[in-house]
């Protein structure tokens, strides 16, 4: 499923989950492009939430120490 296909789903919860799935598997070199595409979703609040959740998950995986 491409991001364009995700946009066709009227349910924001389904799109949110699909965006997180896509963002979780994107190559580092393509991440910024995918983030830009996610942020074209008509529900900007949901799109921003998906991107922020992705960034939270990435940050947690990059810093595995106790701090």
Describe this structure in words.
The chain has 67 residues and is an all-alpha fold. It has four helices and no strands. The protein is globular. The model has no long low-confidence stretch (mean pLDDT 88).
Q: What class, by secondary structure content?
A: mainly alpha
Give me the strand/helix succession: HHHH
What does the main sheet amount to? none
Distance between the termini: 37 Å
The radius of gyration over CA amounts to 12 Å
Beta-strand segment tally: 0
What is the approximate shape?
A: globular
| Helicity level | 55-70%
User: Which residues form runs of ≥5 with pLDDT under 50?
Assistant: none
Average pLDDT number: 88
Question: What is the overall number of helices?
Answer: 4
What percentage of the residues does DSSP assign to strands (E)? under 5%
Sum up the structure in keywords:
about 65% helix, about 70 residues, mainly alpha
Brief summary of the model shown:
Helices cover 67% and strands 0% of the residues. The protein is built from 4 helices and no strands.
Blueprint of the fold:
Blueprint: H1 3-7, H2 12-24, H3 31-38, H4 44-62
